[in-house]
Design brief:
The chain is an alpha+beta fold. About 45% of the residues lie in helices and about 20% in strands. The chain has 4 domains: about 15-45 and about 160-190; about 50-150, Sandwich (Jelly Rolls); about 190-230; about 230-265.
């Protein structure tokens, strides 16, 4: 009895998959351009050189010229050196003077030499020289001598530089490529059934929250359209409906006076009707009153 397979859906929407694919493509293009750019930059760097003048017609003749081939980064690589030499005859000079020179290393080994009549090239060459100190010994003559050296410093590390540039390009561009590739792979990974049900519930909740946000934003727009009372309007309304302080004080004093009068009338009514007894006739002395206290005892 064969089991039925249930096709799991992807955990991401088609829009998310398309976006991840675009980001991965952009990361690949960026990494490729970065690697190519670093390689071009290194090619430009190794094409640079240092030129040293040995002898020139407008300067004093130098019989011995010292120069050094550096040991870059302790690599021990030989350096490309170009030596250019040309000679010419002075004006109104009928004979051909002799031109001779030697290049000697620090171990007194003759690296190169030339000897001949002046006129044209006089032993130019391009060689790879080991690192160390060298000297060019030239014999002074009546000829016009032009000598110069060109040291291609970084060309001795040409291969190593390309490898380093490639490594840097892979590190800088590969990080973005790796992250976007993992993201794209996750979007294509099938989603388990229980995860799929959870995703549907979450999508429904997210959709409801979005609808609530839209409702709140629309209400806030309508609130802005309703004109709210200003502070001046509230103040005018309070002044209109509320009496002034002096008016309140006058009304309270009138009410207080009327209450006092009513109370006095009530107290007098409790005493009954008055008579003239004791107020008429001649005054008589009461012998029982000796002090003020006796008055209260009457």
């Amino acid at each position: 009895m064969g089991g039925r397979k249930i096709a799991n859906q992807s955990k991401s929407s088609p829009e998310e998959i398309l976006l991840a694919k675009k980001q991965l493509r952009r990361a690949i293009i960026t990494a490729v351009f970065l690697i190519i750019g670093l390689q071009i930059a290194w090619i430009i760097a190794i094409s640079q050189s240092a030129i040293r003048e040995v002898n020139q017609p407008d300067s004093e003749f130098e019989e011995i010229h010292l120069f050094e081939v550096p040991n870059l980064l302790s690599s021990g690589n030989n350096m490309n050196v170009d030596y250019r030499c040309s000679s010419s005859l002075p004006e109104n000079y009928s004979s051909y003077p002799q031109v001779s020179w030697q290049m000697i290393s620090s171990s007194n080994k003759v690296v190169a030499e030339w000897n001949g009549n002046a006129g044209g090239d006089c032993g130019s060459f391009s060689k790879k020289l080991p690192f160390g100190t060298y000297q060019i010994v030239s014999d002074e003559s009546d000829a016009i001598l032009v000598q110069e050296l060109e040291l291609h410093i970084w060309k001795s590390l040409q291969f190593e530089g390309h490898m380093v540039a490639l490594l840097f390009g892979m590190i800088l561009g590969g990080d973005s490529f790796w992250r976007n590739w993992k993201k794209f792979r996750l979007t294509k990974t099938p989603l388990p059934k229980h995860k799929l049900s959870q995703k549907k519930v979450w999508d429904e909740v997210n959709e409801r929250m979005s609808e609530n946000d839209e409702t709140s934003s629309s209400l806030s727009k309508y609130e802005k359209m309703i004109a709210l009372p200003t502070k001046q309007d509230v103040k005018s309304e309070k002044e209109y409906y509320s009496p002034s302080f002096e008016q309140k004080e006058e009304e309270s004093s009138v009410d207080e006076k009327s209450l006092i009068e009513e109370k006095e009338i009530e107290e007098l009514s409790d005493l009954g009707e008055g008579t003239m007894h004791g107020l008429e006739g001649p005054l008589q002395k009461d012998e029982s009153i000796k002090s003020v206290k006796d008055i209260w005892d009457l």
